Amino acid sequence: MAERVHMSGIGKRFGETVALAGVDFTAARGEIHGLLGENGAGKTTLMNVLSGLYRADEGRIAIDGATAAIAKPSDALRYGIGMVHQHVELIPNFSTLENVLLGREGGGLWLRPERHRKDVEAVAARFGLAIDLDVEVRQLAVGVQQKVEILKALYRGVDILILDEPTTMLTPQEVDTLFGTLRAMADQGLTVVFITHKIREILANCDRVTVMRGGRRVTTLERARMDEGHLVELMIGERLQTASVSETRETSVGPVAAAQTVLEVIDLAVEGERGRPILTACSFRVDAGEVVGVAGVAGNGQRELADTLAGAIRAAAGHILLEGRDVTSASVRARIAAGLLVIAEDRITDGLLPGLSVAENLVLGLHPFAFSRRFTFDRGRARELARAAIAEYAIRARSEDAPAVELSGGNIQKVLVARAIAQARAVGGRLLVATNPTRGLDVRATEFVRHRCLAFAATGGGVLLISEDLDELRQLCHRIVVMFRGTIVADLPRERFDPYAIGRLMAGATAKPAPS
Amino acid sequence: MSRETTPAGASFATEALTYVVAVALAAAVSALFIVAMRGDVVLALRSILSSSLGSVAGFAQTLNKISPLLLGSMAVMLARQGGFFNIGVDGQMYAGAIVTTGIAFAVGNALPLVVMLPLALVAGFAGGAAFGAVPGALRARWGVNEIFVTVMLNFVAYYFTEWVATGPWNDPITGEAITRVLPASATLPMLLPAAGAHAGILIAVVVSAAVAVLLGRTLLGYEIRTAGDNPRAATLGGVRLGPVTLVTLALSGALAGLAGAIEVVGYHNRLILGLTPGYGAMAILIAVLGRMRPLGVGVASVLVAILMVGADSLQRSVKLPASAGAVFQAIVVLCVLLVETRSARRARA
Question: Which of B118, B180, B190, B262 would disulfide-bridge B171, Cβ 3.0–4.6 Å?
Answer without folding.
Answer: B180
